[in-house]
Specification:
There is one protein chain. This protein is of the alpha+beta class and about 120 residues long. It has one domain: Nucleic acid-binding proteins (OB fold (Dihydrolipoamide Acetyltransferase, E2P), Beta Barrel). The protein is about 15% helix and about 55% strand. The protein is built from two helices and six strands, in the order ββββαββα. β2 and β3 form a beta hairpin. The chain is globular, with a radius of gyration of 17 Å. The termini are far apart.
């Protein structure tokens, strides 16, 4: 079974591209904090992800740099030769499901609210 579920923050804005077959695709990096610390410091993994079709369109329209999202998909490896002829391997998550969790803007607004100003 090849199932990956991650929760993290996007490291950049999602750029929508269209293939020659008129399919939408976006690639992005998800910063995922590990559940443990190393020498009292948080450890973050940066996971390459690719998303296709309507999900790619939705992400490019509504997800911005720093937004927290949950993704589910499958792990994929592929290889190619770059412009200099060097053989490269890529491991990435192919996203099939997306959950909006919190925008960076929402988090910043919540941190600005003083408890004395709360309506209850």
């Amino acid at each position: 079974m090849n199932v990956v579920s991650l929760t993290g923050r996007t490291t950049g804005n999602i750029e929508l591209k269209k293939t020659s077959n008129d399919n939408y695709v976006s690639s992005f990096t998800l910063a995922v904090e590990r559940a443990f610390k190393v020498q009292d410091e948080k450890v973050t993994d940066f996971i390459s992800c690719v998303v296709w079709g309507k999900t790619a369109e939705t992400m490019s329209a509504y997800v911005n740099k720093g937004d927290m999202v949950g993704i589910t998909g499958r792990l994929q490896t592929r290889e190619y030769d770059d412009k200099e002829g060097v053989h490269r391997y890529i491991t990435e998550v192919v996203v099939s499901e997306l959950t909006f969790l919190q925008s960076k803007k929402q988090e910043n607004n919540q941190s600005l609210v003083d408890d004395d100003d709360a309506p209850f």
